[in-house]
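Run: sequence + fe (ii) ion -> complex structure.
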Amino acid sequence: MLKSSVRCYSTAKPRIGVLMLNLGGPENSAAVHPFLLRLFSDRDLIPLPFMQGGKYNLLPRFIAKRRTPKIIEQYNRIGGGSPIKMWTEEQGNAMVERVAQLCPDFEVKNYTGFRYAEPLTEDAMDQMEADGIQHCVAFTQYPQYSCSTTGSSFNGMYRHIIKRQKEGNPFKMTFSAIDRWATHPLLVKSFAELINKQLETVEPKDRHKVVLLFSAHSLPMSVINRGDPYPQEVGATVEHVMKALNYSNPYRLVWQSKVGPSAWLGPQTDDAIKGLIKNGSKNLMMIPIAFTSDHIETLYEMDIEYGEEMKEEFPDANILRCESLNMHKTFVDCLSDLVADHLKSDGKTIQQMALRCPMCTNPTCGPMRGFFSSRTFPQNLTGCTSDDKEPMKSFG
Ligand SMILES: C=CC1=C(C)c2cc3[nH]c(cc4nc(cc5[nH]c(cc1n2)c(C)c5CCC(=O)O)C(CCC(=O)O)=C4C)c(C)c3C=C
Ligand code: FES
Ligand SMILES: [Fe+2]
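>> structure
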């Protein structure tokens, strides 16, 4: 629990901006191609061959253009676009309302910073500075850390900070980061509550037979073999949730959304569903364990591809899907607690941030990690005495 004993002596409240980082998604058909082009041009996500050529490299353009019609079709099936912006803004608004109660000594505003769709992270950072924000908390919306997701957003932020420095227009605001929260007790509680809610739709006699299929976005094996912490952190979330459920049901961790022909971490969610049904498990529940809201991966892939279409093939099967975290009350409390804890612990980031992947060869990862892991709040922001501060909790 948070103590309410932070004493502040400055009169004006420090202005904190919480930058909610995520991948983003296209809001309409016209936004699909620019989204995919940014995504396939990101070397922190996909180290394609011949990537050194920067804007002259044609491979991302070729892949994005070829993939666009198929992805437009998928977004059309879920209403024309991704709801990720709507959810991120609603979550952020509710979060700062609660943080205002938990941390009355700070003035806190939320911003959305997407990697591949608008509002872009770099633009959001510029906006924060223009709004007079004194300190930016880079708050990843991926609970489990991967260098291809949170790492990519942080690298992007770092490059933008350096760019403005070189242009002679450095940021005045300071930065700190919330980089991972895979085992935060309120995240775990949120999942347990939503799973129980879904289990209640099953007849009591069959409830304990439902196989809980925790499904996370997969990663290429090249990323796994580099030593990326994501699979371990996703596994940690799953184990904490199962413990909260008192291991009430059989369960497995499976991986979805493989892209392209290279090897990705498995088993794939669709193969696992088919295999389990063939092996006699008729009651299954998919749980999106690495996403904080609905978007194409839940609404199209899980609900349509693995839900509706699978039911045509296996009419006897009962394939459920646990609701996404979206605006679940306990989840909003989770986001608020993370930010409040960060502010009250003086923005100290955890040691984990300084550790690069054992096989990392990306020269931009080093400086970025050093930058964020060494950040603390400037004293004049909080005006608090040092013995008031609590150590930041680690939820990695
Ligand atoms: C934990 C979340 C995610 C990880 C890890 C991740 C890795 C990853 N993704 C791609 C390629 C694509 N991802 C796409 C969409 C997409 N990815 C995530 C999350 C993670 N990605 C989300 C939430 C979404 C949906 C966005 C929305 O609709 O709002 C896409 C675009 C869709 C498609 O073309 O299939 C691609 C491509 C790679 C290569 C990767 C790891 C290296
Ligand atoms: S890829 Fe993980 S630290 Fe560089
Ligand atoms: Fe993805």
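>> summary
The chain has a mean pLDDT of 90. The pocket of fe (ii) ion (ligand 3) is lined by residues 217, 257 (CB under 6 Å).
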